[in-house]
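lol forgot to send this yesterday, sorry. struct tokens for the thing we talked abt
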């Protein structure tokens, strides 16, 4: 029996929510539910970006399991740590990202809930510092990038980045579009393993971007969410290090979701390099007050695991070996897929979890409905979702739909 609990006041009481429009569901996260509800045993999930082994599992990494056992045995308090989170975690991570050459007196790092938390905290800090700054984001990008900056109140501008017809970065078009950027604007850059295209700038292009930022006064905001899954831990940080060396001011959002497999534990960090030691203090205090109002304090568990792994020689060696295996698997799958058709050859040279396939929206729907193949609506596939025993079936279903001449 239902009881009508409608208050007698409801006819006259203000309803602020009546002004809200229903929002479209997140397309990437929606794929998780769609795939789960599909009963076909041979369905292939190439949707959301999680690493999978050749049996299709996303296992907890061995180093993480060992760190969890150690944490459970030794942790003697769950009392608050504060808005900056676990400072030893941030310090240990900084060492693998920036190496020894850090501008320690100008670089402030705080732990955040995932890479999204880092991007949002950076966006809020930038909006508070200069609300007139615009954020330049390449097309295509991770669909959450635009909303994160827009919700912080910053104007988001797009620049061209990837040419689907050439399956390559259109660097000239990117530079052309950035001619409209003003001093103080922010340039969002994927540090490695571009999501969704897998395409990387050449070292010369990275240097040209650093020069452009220096000459035009643009502030680089690097998003590094896949360190170790492209060419290796140090190689994947090379561009970030160069940018932080070359520019006085820079921001870095970091995620441990993929390289530590800690997705649901929400483990990230934000670093802000300020132009002088004098501005480091206000930067830090604003980061902390913003964090306090956003989430008060970041969740501890995953960050504690990362700290334990990075501080233990044994666990760190184990983690790096697991990461090497993950990267080799992804790059091996890239080679195999690229060999399936000349229109896919660029996939071999791309890096990270993702590639964009030249497919129409109708083809993406047909692959899902007809073959149980799930991918993002823009044709992005998670390479790690492929398996040795499904790659042939995937290629057979895919090839008739591929755009472009053979
Ligand atoms: C992805 O791009 O699939 C992942 O980063 C998951 C997400 O949050 O969108």
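and heres what i got for the seq, position by position
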């Amino acid at each position: 029996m239902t009881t009508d609990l409608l208050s007698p006041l409801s006819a006259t009481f203000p309803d602020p929510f009546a002004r809200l429009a229903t929002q479209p569901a997140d397309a990437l996260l929606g794929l998780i539910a769609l795939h789960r509800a599909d009963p076909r045993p041979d369905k292939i999930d190439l949707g959301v970006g999680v690493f999978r082994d050749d049996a299709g599992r996303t296992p907890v990494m061995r180093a993480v399991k060992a760190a969890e056992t150690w944490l459970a045995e030794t942790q003697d308090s769950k009392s608050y740590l504060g808005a900056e989170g676990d400072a030893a975690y941030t310090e240990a991570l900084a060492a693998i990202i920036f190496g020894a050459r850090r501008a320690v007196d100008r670089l402030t790092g705080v732990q955040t809930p995932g890479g999204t938390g880092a991007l949002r905290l950076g966006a809020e800090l930038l909006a508070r510092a200069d609300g007139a700054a615009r954020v330049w984001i390449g097309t295509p990008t991770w669909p959450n990038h635009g909303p994160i900056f827009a919700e912080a109140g910053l104007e988001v501008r797009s620049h061209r980045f990837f040419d689907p017809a050439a399956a390559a970065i259109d660097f000239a078009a990117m530079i052309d579009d950035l001619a409209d950027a003003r001093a103080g604007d922010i340039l969002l850059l994927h540090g490695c393993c571009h999501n969704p295209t897998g395409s990387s700038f050449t070292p010369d292009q990275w240097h040209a971007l650093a020069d452009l930022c220096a000459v035009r006064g643009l502030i680089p905001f690097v998003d590094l969410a896949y360190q170790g899954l492209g060419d290796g831990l140090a190689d994947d940080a090379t561009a970030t290090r160069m940018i932080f060396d070359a520019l006085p001011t820079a921001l870095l959002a970091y995620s441990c979701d993929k390289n530590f497999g800690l997705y649901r534990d929400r483990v990230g960090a934000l670093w802000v390099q300020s132009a002088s030691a004098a501005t480091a203090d206000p930067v830090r205090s604003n980061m902390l007050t913003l964090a306090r109002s956003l989430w008060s304090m970041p969740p501890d568990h995953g960050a504690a695991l990362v700290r334990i792994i990075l501080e233990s020689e044994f666990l760190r060696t184990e983690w790096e070996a697991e990461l090497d295996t993950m990267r080799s698997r992804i790059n091996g799958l890239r080679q195999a897929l690229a060999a399936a058709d000349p229109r896919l050859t660029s996939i071999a040279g791309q890096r990270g979890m993702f590639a964009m396939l030249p497919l129409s929206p109708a083809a993406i729907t047909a692959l899902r409905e007809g073959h149980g193949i799930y991918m993002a609506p823009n044709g992005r596939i998670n390479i790690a979702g492929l398996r040795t025993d499904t790659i042939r079936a995937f290629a057979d279903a895919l090839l008739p739909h591929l755009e472009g001449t053979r």
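The chain has a mean pLDDT of 95. anyway ping me if u want another try
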